[in-house]
Design brief:
- The structure is a homotetramer.
- By secondary structure, chain A is an alpha+beta fold.
- Chain A has a single domain, classed as Thiol Ester Dehydrase, Chain A (Roll), CATH 3.10.129.10.
- Helix content of chain A is about 20%, strand content about 35%.
- Chain A has 3 helices and 6 strands, in the order ββααββββα.
- Chain A has a 6-stranded antiparallel beta sheet with strand order 1-2-4-5-6-3.
- In chain A, strand 4 and strand 5 form a beta hairpin.
- Chains in contact: A-B, A-C, A-D, B-C, B-D, C-D.
- At the B-C interface, helix 1 and strand 3 of B face helix 1 and strand 3 of C.
- Strand 3 of chain B pairs antiparallel with strand 3 of chain C, so a sheet runs across the interface.
Chain lengths: ~150, ~150, ~150, ~150
Amino acid sequence: MTDFRAPYRGGFTGNEHHFALTVYFEDTDLSAIVYHANYLRFFERARSDMLRAVGIDQRAAHEAGEGTYAVTEMDIKWKRPAKLDDDLLVVSKVTKIRAASCSIHQRVMRGSEVLADARVTAALLSPEGRPIRQPADWIDKFKAILAEGEE
Amino acid sequence: MTDFRAPYRGGFTGNEHHFALTVYFEDTDLSAIVYHANYLRFFERARSDMLRAVGIDQRAAHEAGEGTYAVTEMDIKWKRPAKLDDDLLVVSKVTKIRAASCSIHQRVMRGSEVLADARVTAALLSPEGRPIRQPADWIDKFKAILAEGEE
Amino acid sequence: MTDFRAPYRGGFTGNEHHFALTVYFEDTDLSAIVYHANYLRFFERARSDMLRAVGIDQRAAHEAGEGTYAVTEMDIKWKRPAKLDDDLLVVSKVTKIRAASCSIHQRVMRGSEVLADARVTAALLSPEGRPIRQPADWIDKFKAILAEGEE
Amino acid sequence: MTDFRAPYRGGFTGNEHHFALTVYFEDTDLSAIVYHANYLRFFERARSDMLRAVGIDQRAAHEAGEGTYAVTEMDIKWKRPAKLDDDLLVVSKVTKIRAASCSIHQRVMRGSEVLADARVTAALLSPEGRPIRQPADWIDKFKAILAEGEE
């Protein structure tokens, strides 16, 4: 039996991070489908959950002034619409690690259908907004889940 | 072990509906706390989950032109701020049932702290936006969870 | 001729602050009307514009650590729905000034129709989230626009 | 003198559509900058205003079941952050017209700085979500503002 007092957490299957969510009214627009910009919110929830899963505490880093990730680039295709009450799965793979940034391939799935497909670059920024090196132990955490060679 | 491919669902403890969620970047504003309007999104997710839990299919009703719930009144107090990564619990109780509307008491909790407290009225509206009677079996479902006498 | 390179600013007619806006896709939900929580965004834009109009610089105050306004209470009624492309007017009146907070009556109008009506309390909070006294010159600015005796 | 009861409208300077806006609390996140997904809302407001400016009535088309535009692809770079109270200008150019879709180059500017740069494809979809041909007179309207040969 699930304890519904515990908030949802995603997790890894191999190098793929999985994050499930359900579409609510707030996500839809008058076309009766999910508003396109809201997929970026879904992707961000999944990335934050992935950081949590590998042991990176974004809030602590932010509060300590050690930097915050910002999305610097995204190439996204919306392929099929999602609707109210749809159960979706965000599948994320870290495909490249650089000193100050990461590349992540993210897809929103409904069963076996790909609804949205995005190539995302996220950079670590100082409180002043400058790119800074990711801590060595964060890099190690990412290397452990790196989906190398995968497109 | 939880299956993280299954999306989160809340549920009832007695007449109280519980819905857990976590605060993400999208929910915060530059005060580093959850933007006040976003509590209304949390409340709505919880109400939609509550309808699902009692067996009311909002999407089917909407697509069949049988009506959609709209919030017509809300008296809300924000008492304490929520922050990034906070685990919250939305506690909802149906306190009154009328022919065309319901009253719901909703609170956003963090542990034992009440962060926001709201008295909500939701009315069933026709596709043309007029208040309409709730189906008899929906009324019955609400009566089964009615937290009568509770303020 | 209007210069469309200049962003919109609202303004006062007597003690009433007026802020016009247009409904976009982002504001709607699958009921093809404005999602209820988004009225709170409209109200906030109007309040921020009102502060600017009376000469209070929220960003400077925030960056200097002198405090930020937070909504602590709202009693709101949604009366009629707004739709895509509707031109709306947010009418705001400061009805009470206290040491650490203000009461504001805000309505969203479409022509002569009231779509939403809200009684709002906003408090000035320190960076740590504690209520603090509003600067004397801010109080003076509010007194100059106080819609006293009005409901 | 500007009439602040009239909502803001953007307009064209040659083939460039200009749409000004100001950053509000709702747009920011705890990094004290505009949340990345909210740039997509800014871009959409500008595109909707551009359609209005050339004489295409999105709401009438939607209500008549004649189709609604959906973003199908976006390649976006976030270059510099925007902050609370910043005055921004969204500059949009239609760069290509196809039977069922358009390409648009959109930038968010703050003075002469480019904060975000996006290549957007928008397709006209039927109420069932299938790509449909744009009406001939809409194509003509787009041709009149086509920024051909421009990158």
